[in-house]
Design goal:
Dna Topoisomerase Vi A Subunit, Chain: A, domain 2, Helicase, Ruva Protein, domain 3, 2 domains, single chain, alpha/beta, five-stranded mixed β-sheet, 206 residues
């Protein structure tokens, strides 16, 4: 028996999401029929407003609805320590364990030549501009790319660019890489907070 057109459209859309196959998409579509109309309308409104309200933080490029994200706006955070991550999801991993009190910079990707992603295609230049302007206040920059081939290539590129800025401007901040408490090939998004804590504690000069 074929699905009604409205359910079929929902199912086809859900199948485009990561990790959702046809059967799961069909089950979720039927589940939406059991949700109270008010909740369904609220959910639909949130989806519609998602792209309209969500924007990049003016400082770190995390996702926010205001000019600055909640982390950059928090005066208790150490603005002199910047952890560079690939994705906003990596920030969530750090923040869940409350193991880190500095701020962030989100690249929104990583260098990946095989997929034609170059340094200028992610927010490396924004990081370099931030460092160039505020380098005197910075004590440490932690490179927290994922420990795989693309992550390492991205970290090495950023490290070399930061060295150029340090040499030119005379800045004294350290550049470190997360310690290898993280297994090779792991994704920060799925790493437990204890492993992240050990990785931060064992970070080394880079």
């Amino acid at each position: 028996m074929g699905l009604p057109q409205s359910l079929k459209k929902i199912s086809e859309f859900l199948q485009k999401l990561p990790g959702i196959g046809e059967k799961t998409a069909n089950r979720l579509s039927f589940y939406f029929l059991r949700i109270p109309q008010k909740d369904l309308e609220e959910f639909g409104k949130s989806i519609i407003e998602l792209r309209k309200k969500t924007k990049y933080c003016h400082q770190c490029l995390n996702l926010t609805e205001g000019k600055y994200c909640s982390i950059c706006s928090d005066t208790s955070r150490d603005q002199g320590i910047i952890t560079v991550v690939e994705s906003p999801l990596d920030i969530i991993a750090f923040e869940q364990g409350r193991i880190y009190t500095g701020v962030y910079h989100v690249l929104h990707g990583r260098i990946d030549p095989l997929n034609n992603i170059r340094p200028e295609d992610i927010f490396i230049d924004k990081l370099l501009k931030r460092v160039y302007e505020d380098g005197k206040k910075i004590k440490e920059i932690i490179l927290a790319m994922n420990p795989d081939m693309e992550g390492e290539a991205t970290a090495m590129y950023i490290r070399d660019r930061l060295k150029e800025i340090k040499s030119k401007k005379g800045f004294k901040f350290r550049v470190t890489r997360l310690g290898y408490g993280l297994p090779i090939g792991a994704s920060l998004e799925y790493t437990d907070y204890f492993t992240l804590k050990k990785a931060i504690e064992s970070r080394t000069q880079y």
